[in-house]
Design brief:
The protein has about 260 residues and is an alpha+beta fold. The chain contains six helices and seven strands. It is flat, with a radius of gyration of 23 Å.
Length: about 260
């Protein structure tokens, strides 16, 4: 029992996801449980510190822009210039709001012990996200084409729908005007369901491939600038909580664009 407890303590110190072993005496069990409780409290503290540090770091840029615009407005510039600064203030405030909202969504998801899964008609769920983003695509003159096999699997419909919407929103933002986006839903021989979203955008630079799902990492969007960098982190968390996988890579058919496979 002492050896098992020692191995457990060593694994915790290395940061490995290990469970408390069964120990032979009540005294050792109490000691082991005390170590386990301490571990969870320290992990929670580090988790909160990481979120606070990340959020404050990301808020620096829009706050600096707000302060600069406000200082220039104090000098009573001409009306057209003042309107430009006011627009900048509104844009930066909206950016901070989106950032905080996304952080709260991600923190809420990561803190849930388990998802509430119900049988979900996946082709219908994907179709709903297409319908919701159709106006956004039409504004950009982008056509959405879908070929979805019918399937029903246990899932949290709200979260999975949000993940699909994030992927489709990315594809629209990176697509050129009058482009096409193809959505293919297929039942695999394993019984899993694969959704592929293929766009005609610029594709993914080599330097970004390993960082796409990293929290706060984002590439400049051709028409809307940088995003919060939290959308793909949320997608990965949702997919992993559904025991699934997510991949984002360049097209392999010789055409420009990216392919997301959920």
């Amino acid at each position: 029992s002492l050896r098992r407890l020692e191995d457990y303590a060593a694994a915790v110190s290395r940061g490995e996801p290990v469970s408390l072993p069964k120990l032979g005496s009540p005294e050792l069990m109490r000691l082991g449980q005390a170590l386990e409780n301490m571990r969870h409290k320290l992990e929670g503290k580090a988790y909160v510190e990481q979120y606070v540090h990340s959020l404050t770091h990301e808020l620096k840029s829009p706050l600096s822009a707000l302060r600069g615009a406000a200082e220039l407005l104090q000098e009573s510039p001409p009306e057209p210039v003042a309107q430009r600064f006011l627009l900048s203030i509104r844009e930066q405030a909206e950016r901070m709001q989106r950032l905080i909202d996304k952080m709260l969504e991600l923190a809420s998801l990561e803190s849930r012990p388990q998802l509430e899964k119900q049988p979900v008609q996946l082709d219908s769920l994907i179709g709903q996200q297409i319908a919701l983003l159709q106006p956004h695509a039409e504004r950009r003159q982008i056509q959405l084409h879908s070929n979805l096999q019918a399937a029903k699997l246990p899932a949290d419909a709200l979260l999975l729908g949000q993940a699909i919407a994030n992927l489709l929103d990315n594809a629209i933002d990176f697509s050129p005007a009058e482009g096409h986006i193809e959505l293919q839903g297929t039942i695999l021989t394993t019984g899993d369901y694969q959704l592929s979203i293929v766009d005609q955008g610029p594709g993914i630079p080599d330097y970004a491939q390993e960082r796409l799902f990293e929290r706060f990492y984002s590439l400049p969007r051709p028409h809307t600038g940088k995003s919060t960098g939290l959308g793909l982190s949320l997608v990965r968390e949702v997919v992993e909580r559904h025991q699934g996988t997510i991949a984002l890579h360049n097209r392999t058919d010789g055409q420009s664009g990216a392919c997301a496979e959920l």
